[in-house]
Write a structure and sequence with these properties.
189 residues, mainly alpha
Length: 189
């Protein structure tokens, strides 16, 4: 559940982006991500996570830039799709950086749910690299869909919606399926 809650800023952004506008969506994403980060700082037994810190920086930076009157028309593609592209590419970058730093973002969430003795297990760490890779692939699909819609505005918006839903549902299902498969293959519970 923790990993899904970490995507609340992106959901807030998507909803307000569609209903009100991209600047309001960015501000909502920044506020929700800051709230989640604060929650982890103040909760005993929780620590700030790579995804949460990256999300605060992503939404905070884009919101400040947009509110400060930056040239949103040129830097953000002059369209809502340009803002979505920046958000989705930023999310992909956060995930890839977590892998490059040898701290796949799912590891921090998984450690909150498994016993401490498994934390340094090669099998546990490998499982989290694979799951983080699946999320990276899902976010790459979002970036590609954003690019297609940005350069092919004649396509119906449902193209992006379908690509997003399929990619995210696939990553969510994989996240719950893969560890179970690994446990079954190992003959453990």
């Amino acid at each position: 559940m923790g990993i899904l809650l970490a995507f609340a800023p992106f959901i807030a952004f998507a909803v307000l982006d569609r209903l009100v506008g991209p600047v309001e969506g960015l501000i909502a994403g920044a506020l929700v991500s800051a709230t989640l980060l604060l929650r982890d700082w103040m909760s005993p037994g929780k620590t700030p996570k790579i995804l949460e810190v990256g999300t605060v920086l992503l939404f905070g930076g884009l919101a400040l830039y947009a509110v400060a009157g930056g040239p949103t028309q040129s830097i953000m593609g002059g369209a809502v799709m340009g803002v979505r592209l920046l958000v989705d590419a930023g999310l992909l970058l956060i995930v890839l950086i977590s892998i490059a730093l040898r701290r796949p973002f799912t590891l921090q969430y998984a450690r909150e749910q498994v016993a401490h003795e498994f934390w340094d297990s090669p099998r546990f760490i490998h499982t989290n690299y694979v799951i983080t890779g699946a999320w990276a692939l899902a976010f790459l699909v979002l970036v590609i869909a954003d690019l297609v819609l940005l350069y092919r505005p004649d396509l119906p918006p449902r193209f992006g919606i379908v690509a997003t839903v399929l990619a995210l549902v696939g990553a969510i299902k994989f996240t719950s399926w893969y560890p179970e498969r690994r446990r079954s293959a190992a003959g453990t519970v």
